[in-house]
Amino acid sequence: MLYSVDLFVLFLTSFYILFINQINLSTAFSDKSICGLAKDRGNSECGAISEKRFYFDLITKRCQPFLYQGCGGNGNKFNSLTDCRALCSDYEPTVESSHEGGGHGMALPVPKCEGNVRAAVDSEARVIKCPSDQCPDNYECSESKCCPANKKIVCNVEYDTGRYAFQGSHTPRFFYKKEVNNCLLFTYYGALGNANNFETYNDCIKYCKE
């Protein structure tokens, strides 16, 4: 009798997992917006086995394989490469008019501090407005924006390529490298990053070179 109960529980669990996966798959094929979701490996809390799935990568604009943990996750997971391509191959993200609600829909211009240095932004790429918002450590409020308290905050930090933004192409920028006492070129992806990010070589060298 106990054996029969165990089989019944196993059957119900398997049916539930299959049902949830079918719902996710149905949602995926009815709403292209899931192609813009970040890769989510899910978790293993429901006891399902890990398996290969595919997700649409916004940066490469291609369907990529990943190891799905079996439970949870989001709609950007497909059973096959063909399924992923069928829905997402021509996907173009909707550009948001602002950063309200999060995300990096577009690369909004960041206000400049003295020396053409970028003001501080939060984790959602929104400009931190002071004094209503507190400035990060080593930054101080200047004309309603948070600016670096001294040059070391800018020039001694390693450059950061930032994150991909839907609007605006990847752009060449310059960062100061203290080991060579010079400014070098890097590619900026359009959102976030840090203050060691200058639009021109002259701005960089004028601000940082000792």
TrEMBL record:
Which is an annotated Pfam family here? Answer: Kunitz_BPTI
GO molecular-function annotation terms? serine-type endopeptidase inhibitor activity
The name this protein goes by in its record: BPTI/Kunitz inhibitor domain-containing protein
Q: Which residues form the BPTI/Kunitz inhibitor domain?
A: 35-88, 155-208
Q: Which residues form the signal peptide?
A: none
Which PROSITE patterns does the record cross-reference, listed alphabetically? BPTI_KUNITZ_1, BPTI_KUNITZ_2
